[in-house]
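Researcher: Last one for today. Full complex below.
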Amino acid sequence: MSDNASNNLQDLQYFGEYGGVNPSISDSSTYTFVSAKTMIDTFEGNTEGCYLYSRHSSPSNLHLGEALAAIEGTETANVTASGMGAITAVILQLCDTDDHIVSSRTIYGGTYAFMKNFLKKFRIGTTFLDITDIQAVENAITPKTKMIYCESVSNPLLEVANIKALSQLAKKHSIPLVVDNTFSPLTIAPAKLGADIVIHSLTKFINGTSDCVAGVICGTTEFCLALKDVNSGAGMLLGSTLDSLRASSILKNMRTLHLRIQKHSENALFLAKKFEEDGLRVVYPGLESHSGHEILKEQMNIQFGFGGLLTIDAGSLENANALMEMMQAQKLGYLAVSLGFYKTLFSAPGTSTSSEIPMEEQIIMGLGDGLIRFSIGLDNDIQRTYEMMKSCMTKLEIL
Ligand SMILES: *Cc1c(COP(=O)(O)O)cnc(C)c1O
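Model: Here's the assembly. Have a good evening.
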């Protein structure tokens, strides 16, 4: 597969107001009109290139959206103030009261909680299932189903969705396939595989410095404009608007995304192989032992590798906690949720990011309480990191 995604991003060249090499930051919430007539047209949404109010759109947010659409290969993209801001706007745009969603059961805890608990207010029901079981997905679709929802590589168990097969199914039933691609930017381009809407939490790899929260919805011009509609757009009316200053800093960080993803993947593959050889239970989609390995290879852009996330099973929650505390004390990374940072981050998903999922369901999903999720950092000397991690595991008799 040729790397259109990062070429498209590289080819975006902006000039700032004074000829700067970065686009100027739009430092305004509201915009002036020379004629009153243009203001009326802009309110009705039919004046190209005019800005009205920054909750609707701003130059900085449009630039960032353009860059994200370039890597995902969609017509356009709307940025939001968080990943959840993107997810909730898409769902509420597509679903009415009494509608239905078919979703993977291994999804981000916040998305799971939103579907399972919050959407009750609108009597929108969700069938959660094993997204790798295409027949089960088809069986769950009803006349009320308004979308199939999944993550390309799922959180935290790193299940790989067969996006091509799911998109064929979605097309057959005339419903959109919505894919959260937070774990695999550049590696997987869901829209090119047939997904209709691609979402990211920019908070993670795309920004990469764990200094802000942001999100994006990539899709058709028609859908993205509908989200911004002043009378009925979920994006516009729910108000999850990204600040322009932040949009501009994320856009700058994105310029190194290809290098960072390659390094995250290289380091994660190195550690996954070593830990597996040492006899640890490791889940990493780059390992042949991973159930989604072949599907991922078919769908991915190989030069970006298998991603920066892996999990190990420390046997028990006590072991997991002791190991994480020891690794943090040795400066191997932080005991923190989130991912995509330049330093390694680790957390026990069962008690943190997936705690919204009831314990019985966690067990069915294979989310044991000794599970540690690692987001592997950009360490230059990964052999040294491995040796230090291994010595922590040996001390605690996990290895
Ligand atoms: C973090 C995350 C989200 C939520 O994003 P926020 O920016 O924290 O709102 C959604 N999906 C996935 C897969 C995530 O990792």
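Residues 100 and 143 are 9 Å apart (CA to CA). Residues 82-84, 108, 110-111, 151, 155, 180, 182-183, 201, 203-204, 213, 215 surround pyridoxal-5'-phosphate (CB under 6 Å).
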